[in-house]
């Protein structure tokens, strides 16, 4: 029987416990507590730059669990509990699965060993307290946000369309100067916001509003075309809504946490909403209305409460249709990866007229920009979804075949990382030799000074040592730059290893994976896929 070591780190940084340190500490533990284990009987699974929130996005973890299911391992060892799971539910399922396969779980930091009843009990208690700590921190942050919302201040971030920010200084009750930000209206953008609301209330559709703005070349402050997503964000942002009794009651009805009383409403100012969205490393999602914190701002509202509420109710009415469209095609693998070779916009899956023909889900990928503009801005041919998904997967399976599209990219990425490492090593040696020479010169000058304390000699030596010290400072800065570059090169090498491991896992497990699992793995492996009227190019993650 073998022992599996699992190590994980969320980011490519030099801080915290590195992958290497985690592995070494686990091996030391095994050597002390399981001395009969030989080095060849230890399999190491390492992942860096991957969050521990979801197991489905961790290829090395999934690969290890395949070995567990085949009863290949007697123990799974981790440095710390949160390296393998950050959720009580997921952790409990993991322990159940390990117990079913008769595999012991060891976390050396907490000194838990599930081969004993006490170890299993303590493990679950630790997981519960770990989740409680995270939830307590979240609640504390929320309480602080609620108190700040009472002031009606803008807490930062990207300003909504129609506003900028102005800084106001005031003196608090302790006599200390403080500053706060409030919205400052931008009249041209305010006109645009009113136009968007007016057109939406007229056509009662995000698609219709988007097409109107695009046809009339009306763009955002960043000179981009408005999307349905950006329009929805504008139409649901309470900062535009005039605060009165109707809007107050509307937010209460939605279940929002309204941190003001009705008598504080002046029928003039607008609202500010806190905690509307949650942002992570690679995502931003809109929170439920029950999580919003609503306060009266220090700016004037620009949309009447009646119009704002009408827009909100239209969006709510249209939502079931939008949700059905999102899940209408659950079989595409390249959603979020396939882009149009002409305009660079994403291509989304769309069932064609032969959907479910002969029991097969048939679909096409269509350029979003082409669809949004009614073919006026892009005329790229649709792509056969079933065909292009298969072609991309077949090409990925050839990653270990010399001179395949994927193999060429992997070789280039590996060579670039190796060349950069060699260049850094050479540059580091040159700097070390120069530093050594300068230090020897300084030593010689100090030695000559000890033999002759003449004032003129002292002045000369001080001047030369000052010059040499400046050269040492320059060399130190150059060495620091090289170290930063070396960290980047090290990250590139680890990324290369991660991609290779993911490709191997994807090929081995392809037939056992669900569509969602395949798509998640593809997002780890691929940066993007471009479609050019029949020609497909695959760009691996980190190899662009």
Task: Describe this entry's structure for a reader.
The chain is of the alpha/beta class and 544 residues long. It has three domains: 2-146, Resolvase, N-terminal catalytic domain (Rossmann fold), CATH 3.40.50.1390; 182-327, Putative Large Serine Recombinase, Chain B, Domain 2 (Hect, E3 ligase catalytic domain fold, Alpha-Beta Complex); 405-512. It is built from 14 helices and 18 strands. A hairpin with a 2-residue loop joins strand 17 (526-532) and strand 18. Helix 2 (59-69) crosses helix 13 (455-509). The longest helix is centred in the C-terminal third of the chain and has 55 residues, at 455-509. The chain starts with a strand and ends with a strand.
Task: Tell me the layout of helices and strands.
Blueprint: E1 2-9, H1 19-33, E2 42-48, H2 59-69, E3 73-78, H3 88-100, E4 104-107, E5 112-113, H4 117-149, E6 163-171, E7 177-185, H5 187-203, H6 206-215, H7 228-235, H8 245-254, E8 257-258, E9 269-274, E10 277-279, E11 284-286, E12 293-300, H9 305-327, E13 338-340, E14 347-351, E15 363-367, H10 368-372, E16 383-384, H11 385-397, H12 405-451, H13 455-509, H14 515-525, E17 526-532, E18 535-540
Parallel strand pairs: 1-2, 1-3, 3-4, 8-12, 13-17
Antiparallel strand pairs: 4-5, 6-7, 9-12, 10-11, 14-15, 15-16, 17-18
Helix pairs in contact: 2-13, 5-6, 12-13, 13-14
């Amino acid at each position: 029987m073998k022992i599996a070591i699992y190590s994980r780190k969320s980011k490519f940084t030099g801080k915290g416990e590195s992958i290497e340190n985690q592995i070494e500490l686990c091996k030391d533990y095994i050597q002390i507590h399981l001395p009969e284990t030989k080095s060849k009987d230890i399999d190491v699974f390492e992942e860096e730059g991957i969050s521990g929130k979801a197991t489905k996005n961790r290829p090395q973890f999934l690969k290890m669990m395949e070995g567990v299911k085949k009863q290949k391992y007697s123990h799974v060892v981790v440095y710390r509990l949160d390296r393998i799971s950050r959720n009580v539910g997921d952790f409990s399922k993991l322990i159940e699965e390990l117990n079913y396969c008769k595999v012991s779980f060891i976390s050396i930091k907490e000194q838990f060993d599930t081969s004993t009843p006490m170890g299993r009990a303590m493990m679950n208690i630790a997981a519960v307290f770990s989740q409680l700590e995270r939830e307590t921190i979240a609640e504390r942050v929320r309480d602080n946000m609620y108190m700040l919302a009472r002031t009606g201040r803008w807490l930062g971030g990207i300003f909504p369309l129609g506003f900028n920010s102005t800084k106001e200084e005031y003196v608090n009750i302790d006599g200390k100067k403080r500053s706060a930000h409030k919205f400052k209206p931008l009249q041209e953008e305010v006109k645009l916001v009113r136009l968007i609301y007016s057109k939406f209330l007229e056509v009662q559709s995000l698609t219709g509003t988007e097409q109107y703005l695009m046809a009339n070349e009306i763009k955002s402050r960043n000179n981009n075309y408005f999307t349905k997503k950006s329009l929805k964000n504008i139409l649901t942002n309470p900062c535009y809504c005039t605060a009165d009794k109707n809007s107050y009651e509307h937010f209460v009805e939605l279940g929002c946490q309204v941190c003001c009383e009705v008598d504080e409403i002046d029928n003039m100012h607008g609202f500010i909403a806190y905690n509307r969205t949650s942002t992570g490393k690679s995502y931003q999602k809109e929170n439920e209305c029950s999580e919003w914190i609503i306060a009266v701002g220090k700016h004037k509202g620009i949309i009447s409460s009646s119009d704002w509420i009408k827009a909100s109710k239209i969006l709510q009415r249209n939502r079931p249709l939008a949700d059905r469209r999102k899940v209408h095609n659950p079989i595409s693998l390249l959603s979020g990866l396939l882009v149009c070779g002409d305009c660079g916009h994403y291509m989304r899956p769309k069932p064609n007229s032969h959907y479910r023909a002969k029991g097969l889900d048939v679909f096409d990928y269509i350029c979003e920009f082409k669809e949004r503009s009614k073919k006026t801005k892009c005329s790229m041919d649709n792509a056969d979804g079933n065909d292009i998904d298969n072609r991309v997967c077949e090409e990925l399976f050839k990653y270990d075949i010399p001179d395949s599209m994927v193999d060429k990219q992997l070789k280039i990425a590996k060579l670039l990382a190796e060349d950069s490492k060699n260049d850094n090593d050479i540059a580091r040696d040159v700097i070390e030799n120069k530093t050594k020479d300068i230090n020897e010169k300084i030593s010689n000058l100090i030695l000559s000074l000890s033999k002759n304390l003449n004032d003129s000699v002292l002045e000369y030596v001080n001047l030369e040592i000052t010059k040499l010290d400046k050269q040492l400072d320059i060399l130190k800065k150059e060495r620091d730059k090289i170290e930063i570059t070396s960290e980047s090169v090290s990250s590139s090498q680890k990324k290369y290893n991660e991609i290779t491991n993911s490709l191997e896992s994807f090929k081995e497990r392809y037939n056992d994976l669900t569509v969602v699992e395949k798509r998640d793995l593809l997002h780890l492996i691929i940066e993007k896929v471009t479609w050019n009227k029949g020609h497909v190019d695959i760009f691996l993650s980190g190899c662009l």
